[in-house]
Amino acid sequence: MKRKRSVLWFSMVLVWLGCGRAGGTEGPSAARSDATAKAVVVRVAPAVVRPVERTVQFVGTLYGQEEVTLASQVEGQIERLHADLGDPVAEGAV
Questions:
Q1: Over pLDDT 90: what percentage of the chain?
Q2: pTM for the predicted model, two decimal places
Q3: DSSP string, 16-28
């Protein structure tokens, strides 16, 4: 019984503190007067539809998963290249 009574008193105190005006505004009229006193000028512009570029730049270092050694099957030096970087080349073209 004593425990129920203390819980009841504790609940009543919480309700009283929650419903009180401590720390709150004086009322709705005070809130309105504060809002008009602190009015801020805002510039607006119409919304425009345009493409958005989705790019992200990062700085870092890339490492390969495997390391290989390349070597030619024939000795010698390359005298001429008949194709440029990115040109399509048929199989067997020398």
A1: 18
A2: 0.23
A3: HHHHS-TTS-S-H
